[in-house]
Amino acid sequence: MTSATSVLRRPDRRLPSEVTSFVGRRRELAEVRRSLNGARLVTLTGIGGVGKTRLALHAAAGLRAAFPDGVWLAELGDLPDPDALADKIAAVFGLPADAGHPLAALTAFLADKRLLLVLDNCEHVLNACAALADRLLSTVAGLRVLATSRQPLELPGERTLPVGALAVPGPGGASRPGTLEQYDGIALFVDRARAIQPGFTLNERNYDLVVEVCRRLDGIPLAIELTAARLRSFSLAQLLDRLEDRYSLLTTGNRGAPKRQQTLQALMDWSYQLCTPEERTLWARLSVFTGGFELAAAEAVSGTGFDGTTIVDALAGLVDKSVVARTETDGRTRFWMLETIRRYGMDRLTEAGERDEVRRRHRDWFKDLVATAEAEWVGPNQVAWHRRFAAEGPNLRLALDYCLNEDGGQQDALEFATSLCVHGRGCTSLAEGRRWLDRVLAQVPEPTSARANALWVNGWLALLQGDCPAARVLLDEARALAQRLGDAPAMAYVVQFSALADLFDGEFAAAVDGFADAMRRHEEVGNPNGLRASALQRVMARCFAGDAVAAAAIKRTRMVLRPTPSPVTGAYLSWCDAIERFIRRDRGDASGPAMQALRIGADAGEQWLVALSMETLAWLAADAGEHLRAARLLGAAEAARQAIGTKLSGLAYLRKHHEVSERVARSVLGDAAFEAGYREGARMSESQAISFAAPGKPARQAPGRAARGDSALTTRELEIADLVARGLSNQEIADALVIARRTAETHVGHILAKLGFSARAQIAAWTSEHRPSAGR
């Protein structure tokens, strides 16, 4: 028999060698090492397949030098009996199997050692692991424990590190192959794909497919590795098509791995079996949510077997076991599941025969939510409702889809879709809202008041898209139906949005008269919300018309709105104030109300107002001679319009001022510098654009020199200009800044365009003149 002492001297008995390369996780590795420096028990938690074991082993291997007596691994995944845990750990150190009292023998053996013990896969013997770790840590001063588990051991002094999925680009996140491998999920897929196809590389043809595959897999490392292995049999496009049924596709893995890690199904089965019966039932029922949920919604769909206490306990258990994640934003707690986990739960829900019943409860909850929002929309909670609708967009779509396809309540679907598009603008974009309304209008042709309302709402969304011809067709059909039915409330809205069409077409006098008619009609039917909205839109028409009474109308309308203060409505009025000042050339005082409208619109998620305010600030910048600033703001405004699916070409009331501002800025900057500034503004995030739009950022530029100062270049571009001045090539710049050569080339091109140069030598001369300290 080999002695324990000799075992301690043999590193081959401690940690397994890595067969495949370890990819990414630099931040997590550093955090594990920092945590073990300050805590004696560190537990990595996370759902199965997320890479806890691999992270723990890689981190432990890097810590060998810190532990004179070594780093040791106890693999517990296949341990059948919690009572055998002490024997299992004793065997790791080569202690005799017949010790009789393994825990006592273990503590005596470790008493004078300084080592790290990795306890891998503790979840199914959690209580036994907690008791053993507590005993060892309290008696062995030189011991550190690194555990992996679905949930914490919950011991005093334990430091818990949640292990999340690998990073993958979000929608619109990465657009070129050269930028993708900075995402660990993409890097892992590429690494494993090369093991199957040695010549595999990201390129213009496949990078969209790779990104979408990794997104669909939620960045779960095991799922990514199993999918990459399927490249032996399928193309990327075929893999993507088959991921809808991922549990059937991902059935071939590493035959040397534990059985629970050889297929995605086995992995989820393992996690499911670790849950209590109540947790399993709740997991399945919560799978009807998409995009997350709040506690009240979970209570509404949980149904039989759950009350206020049991659902909280079961939900807390699912959070502890890493099945459900928890976040908090603006004081509201929200829960969510990875799509892979949610789909597994939906399969269990279908097996239990509960899918339709739980989907109905889901639909009823969100129909009630929309009705509540409608009642509270005009008032102080308007911003909160905007944010909530944005968060619940996926669930609202799912509920509406259920109404249309599975419930048979198509009149309900018509009313639901109409209310949703009034308040949620279709949840993500104007185009989506129109698609929903087109769909329900096609399915529910009966001449009812609900149809008349859906028609005018669809016409309103078409107006916001800049599609006035389509809007007028829809509004005309709504007018005819409202007249036929004698529906005065619907007719008031038809008149209101027909006047809005006049405003958008630049027919300001007709718009003022039309809004006055709509105000009268809303008042007659007792609709204060419609009356306020028409009054606000009448002010807009007066402002663009340059009406001498516009300023007084703004003040009167503000008084009308004051009894029921609504932040978003008030912000639109601030934008009207900015327009009125701009039209009468009181430009210095116009930027304040425009910025106020911009900030409130962004805070509320009112993207149409964000686009309007950004556009107005661009006009003000051009009029003030800040031409590069104007170019950037025009680009940011266009990006905001594109985000909601609207086109300037259909908005005559904005187009004239836009064209004047662009023409003036181009004439001063030149086409190349204008386009560079415009593109830079379009690439800004919303928060960056708002910060840039604030008055005084940047300082006013003198005509003819707008593209010749440091403010023309970003911080990164200034850095690259300095390197060009030192004589570095594009490849040398890329190496110095750890970026792709193509990225360096793009930056140099932008610098040349912004400064109006054609050669790198000109950049060097400019740097010497304007930044003499650079490069010293």
Automatic annotation (TrEMBL):
GO molecular function, one term: DNA binding
Coiled coil: none
Gene3D superfamilies documented for this protein: P-loop containing nucleotide triphosphate hydrolases, Tetratricopeptide repeat domain, Winged helix-like DNA-binding domain superfamily/Winged helix DNA-binding domain
Name by which UniProt lists this protein: Putative ATPase
Domain of life: Bacteria
All copies of domain HTH luxR-type, residue ranges: 706-771
GO annotation terms (biological process): regulation of DNA-templated transcription
InterPro entries assigned to the protein according to its UniProt record, in alphabetical order: HTH_77 (IPR058852), P-loop_NTPase (IPR027417), Sig_transdc_resp-reg_C-effctor (IPR016032), TPR-like_helical_dom_sf (IPR011990), Tscrpt_reg_LuxR_C (IPR000792), WH-like_DNA-bd_sf (IPR036388)
